[in-house]
Amino acid sequence: MDRPVRRPTAVGRLLELLHLHGPLTRAEATTSLGLARSVVGDAVTDLAELGLVVVRQPAPSRTGGRGRPSPVLLPAPDGPVVVAAHVGVGAARLRVVRLGGESVGEPASLPVDRTAPAERTLAELAARAAELARGAGGPWVGLAVGTGGMVRHGVVRSALHLGWTTEPVQAEDLLARHLPPGVTASVAHECSLAALAERRHGAGRGAGSVLVLACEHIGIGGALLSDGPAAVGHALEAGHLVVDDRGPQCPCGQRGCLELFADGRALLREAGVADTGDAALVSDVLERAARGEPRPLAAARRVAERLGIGAASLVNVLDPDLVVLTGPLRALAVLAREQLESRLADSLVARVDNTRLTAGELHEPVLSGAADLAFDVFFRAPSNALGGNTGQTRPDGG
Ligand SMILES: [Zn+2]
Questions:
Q1: How many whole angstroms from 240 Cα to the centroid of ligand 1?
Q2: Residues 50-94 pLDDT 10s
Q3: Does domain 205-359 fall into CATH 3.30.420.40?
Q4: Are 101 and 173 in contact (CB under 8 A)?
Q5: What's the gap in Å between 310 CA and the centre of ligand 1?
Q6: Which residues lie near ion ligand 1 (Cβ < 5 Å)?
Q7: Do domains 81-192+365-386 and 205-359 have the same CATH topology?
């Protein structure tokens, strides 16, 4: 299609609706979007011409119903794909997701060398993403990456555990320069992405404001998603909440930060397991705790207690309706619910507002959130991406 779409906003909103909710009749879509029928009709025509939406005419009713039944709109089965990536400590995970939300093939992993410059890691990530996208069929329209550190305006700062100091990943196209034209590049904090995904598809569905706490082997992060339409949430350096100012030195500069007592490293220490830096050790201790082995279970409960102390302070300050634990912390919500809840109840706000705490529902929420972010960017200008422009479409619309 060489003409611009007539209704760019309606086209984007309709695509988002179909992506998140699946097939709908045109009448349902019109009601849900609150737009005029003619506007939705034009958007459907444009999307069908772009090959993004399939319009299926229903069989004529033989029961004498009035009027013609509304056609059904579906995301195209060979529609566009995005690659979602999560750059963690030691390894990156990647997954291809098609319009409509279905994962294509198996997720992939890529080793990440902490001593390598960020640009080399990003080039390798882009190359692996391109390989995966090629195998998926359908046009590749976006790559979104979740990382730790502080992510502001496309710049990742102080991702201590990745060895990144100031990396203008999106702001200076460190990632986009390795991508083909029409493929947008976005970066966001891993916890913001996890929060987006849990809010849209997981434990936070239908909740008001949601506080997500997540941990990897090293470090604890958080994100707050306020009430209202789900968008990428505000990331919090939750792991650097001071819980003991005479505690051990943290690489961030403070002493006694929460993550020194409640992340994967702390769990291994409490369980008496030598920490070789292998993230699988953390899952192993949690699995043994789940089987009831005394020392791992005691370690999980001890760590949960400290996490609960941190969560209570965060709830006092942020007043979320729901606290969702993701990553390895998810297991703690099951294994050590009593410790978490009793510490959370130390928070006045949690007692008064009856703040709930729950385990996340998604297996790899950062990847789910990254896929949503890449599609959100695509929905803002689908014809640009498919027209093979020069990759200038930016998440901030600039
Ligand atoms: Zn710290």
A1: 4
A2: 889 999 987 766 555 566 788 999 999 889 999 999 998 888 999
A3: yes
A4: no
A5: 13
A6: 240, 250, 252, 254, 257
A7: yes
Homologous superfamily, domain 81-192+365-386: ATPase, nucleotide binding domain (3.30.420.40)
Say how many Å lie between the CA of residue 71 and the centre of ligand 1: 56
Average confidence score pLDDT of the chain:
88
Q: Give residue 305 CA to ligand 1 midpoint distance, Å.
A: 18
Residue 307 CA to residue 378 CA, distance in Å, equals 37
Cα 210 to averaged position of ligand 1 atoms, centre (Å): 23
C-alpha dihedral sign at 272, 327, 188, 138? positive
Distance (angstroms) between ligand 1 centre and the Cα of 256 equals 7
122: CB partners within 8 A, 6+ apart: 145, 169, 174, 175, 178
Distance 139 CA to ligand 1 centre (A): 42
For ligand 1, the distance from its centroid to the CA atom of residue 343, given in whole angstroms, is 21
Say what the pLDDT of residue 382 is: 82
Kindly give the distance from the C-alpha atom of residue 334 to the centroid of ligand 1, in angstroms, as a whole number: 27
**252-299 pLDDT, tens per residue?**
899 999 999 999 999 999 999 999 888 789 999 999 999 999 999 999
Looking at residue 160, what is its pLDDT?
A: 75
CA distance 53 to 332: 42
